[in-house]
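so im writing up the methods section and need the Nuclear envelope phosphatase-regulatory subunit 1 record in one place, dumping it here so i stop losing it
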Amino acid sequence: MDTNHHVSSKCVVSNFSIFLPVILIVVSVCTATGAWNWLIDPETQKVSFFTSLWNHPFFTISCVTLIGLFFAGIHKRVVAPSIIAARCRTVLAEYNMSCDDTGKLILKPRLHVQ
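--- predicted struct ---
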């Protein structure tokens, strides 16, 4: 007899939230790479701040994008699904159930008390 039954109900937000950490990581790496190139450029010390940013469009665009993502709340959306899944597991444990990270409901076997 199969002890773990998978039901197709969802207890996590959506599958779109899988891409949010990837977007945040890519933009963060681009910003860090652009910042490194911006800081090691000898022209950075010789020109004004805005001219320096104009000379390094990769850093400027990635930095503005990262700031925009944070203002849009991506940092909350990246962490929220794991918090929701953990809370779902806590509640479902009382009913001898659980859910995986994709949101599938897992029915655990009943404990038979004699």
